Amino acid sequence: MDLIERISRQFQDSAQTKLAAVDALAAPLADAIEAMTQCLLNNGKILACGNGGSAADAQHFAAELLNRFEMERPPLAAVALTTDSSTLTSIANDYDYGQVFSKQVRALGQPGDVLLAISTSGNSPNVMQAIDAAHERDMRVVALTGKGGGRMGEQLRPDDVHLCVPADRTARIQEVHLLTLHCLCDGIDCLLLGVEE
């Protein structure tokens, strides 16, 4: 096995997947940025959830908003629903793992808030339950998926935003998800701070 060649292929595949996703994601990304910015300007918050690598992405996104991304600005209201181990384990133990996010959305979500629902497959049951809970709370949903969007794509409403990476390989989808999250952070900052370039 030639490790250098294998590594080079990983870089090339990643770059090609990202470039191929631009046309599919640019317009819905702009919609998601506008929805999230409007939510924040109206004193709302963004709740984020996902499992595994998607949980890490939810935390990454919340950290970039709460602290800062690339520009100095006031902190923005974002909560990763993946971080409170006592809450997660008590819900999973007393009820079931499928409710670990939906119960938090019902408790913390308010009309006008936004749920960022992340699943590479689009079929994560607990993320799907969180989407249902967000709809019950009159929240908009921004769904970040891949592999055709799965069942999550089918449960979204017309005013939700679906960011579906046109890829099937989980690693490539996750790499585009990270770029997508950075685009969201950059776009929110630019709209809030009036950046023109």
TrEMBL record:
Enzyme superclass (EC): isomerase
Annotated residues for binding of Zn(2+): H60, E64, Q174, H182
Catalytic activity, reaction form: 2 D-sedoheptulose 7-phosphate = D-glycero-alpha-D-manno-heptose 7-phosphate + D-glycero-beta-D-manno-heptose 7-phosphate
EC numbers on record: 5.3.1.28
Cofactor note: Binds 1 zinc ion per subunit.
Example of a GO biological process term: D-glycero-D-manno-heptose 7-phosphate biosynthetic process
Domain SIS as annotated: residue spans: 36-197
A GO MF term: zinc ion binding
Required co-factors: Zn(2+)
Cell compartment(s), UniProt: Cytoplasm
Cellular component annotations (GO), alphabetically ordered: cytoplasm
InterPro entries associated with the record: GmhA/DiaA, Phosphoheptose_Isoase, SIS_dom, SIS_dom_sf, SIS_GmhA/DiaA_subfam
HAMAP family: GmhA
Known function: Catalyzes the isomerization of sedoheptulose 7-phosphate in D-glycero-D-manno-heptose 7-phosphate.
Note: The reaction produces a racemic mixture of D-glycero-alpha-D-manno-heptose 7-phosphate and D-glycero-beta-D-manno-heptose 7-phosphate.
Complex and partners: Homotetramer.
The name this protein goes by in its record: Phosphoheptose isomerase
Lineage: Bacteria, Pseudomonadati, Pseudomonadota, Betaproteobacteria, Rhodocyclales
